[in-house]
Design a protein that fits this description.
Helix content: 40-55%
CATH superfamily of one domain: Glutaredoxin
Strand content: 5-15%
Pfam family, one: Thioredoxin
Family: Belongs to the thioredoxin family.
Number of strands: 7
Distance between the termini: 93 Å
Keywords: Disulfide bond, Electron transport, Redox-active center, Transport
Radius of gyration: 41 Å
Number of helices: 8
CATH architecture of one domain: 3-Layer(aba) Sandwich
InterPro entries: Thioredoxin-like_sf, Thioredoxin_CS, Thioredoxin_domain
Largest sheet: 5 strands, mixed
Order of helices and strands: HHHHEHEHEHEEEHE
Shape: elongated
Structural class: alpha/beta
Protein name: Thioredoxin
CATH class of one domain: Alpha Beta
Strand order of the largest sheet: 1-3-2-5-6
Oligomer: single chain
Length: about 230
């Protein structure tokens, strides 16, 4: 059948003018059916690539890979590094692990202003406030900062009536308590105001108005082991 068509086309071509529209269209059709061109398909594929069909996907995968890598590194850094409450603002910031540590620190402070922070490792307000507290400690090397973990020192904290975290006590050495209050990040100015008030020459503010000598070992533990509340951020 193909031979018959070719013969017919050849006869039409030889018997008619080459400029005949009918002959030209038939010859073009025959040529296209015998030798199909692959170039349009190649061009089409090339267009898909250039418009992003194969280039956008690798870009998305690379971005996702970077995000996963960043999360992994952040998690490793958080795990390997010290916990937030284990960091401090310098040599004038001391961790208190027992009642005796607390009494020794107060007695050795002399006439220095002592700021005691009561915190919980689970307390979000304590964690948010802590970086600013470290900065304050660095800016005031003459002040002694004591960090007391509530869960590690519950009998002592309850004897000092610490019920809300974070909580602060101000002492002048072992003479007694000057002031105490709860303080969240939103109320940080309260802590700065108290430092400005009490970190002055001793004679300018008179004797401490606290509870007097601190003798915590004589205090009996609280009857109920109630957890401390977290200070409101408002």
């Amino acid at each position: 059948m193909a031979d018959v068509l070719r013969l017919s086309f050849h006869s039409l071509h030889s018997s008619s003018s080459s400029s005949s529209p009918l002959v030209s269209s038939l010859l073009n059709f025959s040529s296209s059916t015998q030798q199909p061109s692959l170039s349009p398909r190649k061009n089409s594929e090339k267009t898909i690539c250039s418009t992003g069909g194969s280039s956008v996907l690798p870009l998305v995968l690379r971005q996702r890979k970077r995000l996963i890598s960043w999360k992994v590194h952040a998690a490793v850094a958080e795990t390997d590094g010290p916990k937030w409450w284990e960091r401090n603002g310098g040599p004038n910031m001391i961790d208190i692990h027992s009642t005796q540590d607390f009494l020794n620190a107060l007695s050795q402070a002399g006439e220095k202003l002592v700021i005691v922070e009561f915190y919980g490792t689970w307390c979000g307000s304590c964690r948010a406030l802590f970086p600013k507290l470290c900065r304050i400690a660095q800016e005031n090397p003459d002040i002694l900062f004591l960090k007391v973990n509530f869960d590690e020192n519950k009998p002592m904290c309850k004897s000092l009536n610490v019920k809300v975290l974070p909580y602060f006590h101000f002492y002048r050495g072992a003479d007694g308590e000057l002031e105490s209050f709860s303080c969240s990040l939103a109320k940080f100015q309260k802590l700065k105001d108290a430092i400005a008030k009490h970190n002055t020459a001793r004679c300018s503010i008179g004797p401490p108005k606290g509870v007097g000598d601190v003798n915590l070992p004589e205090f009996s533990p609280a009857p109920k082991d109630e957890p401390a509340a977290e200070a409101s951020s408002r």
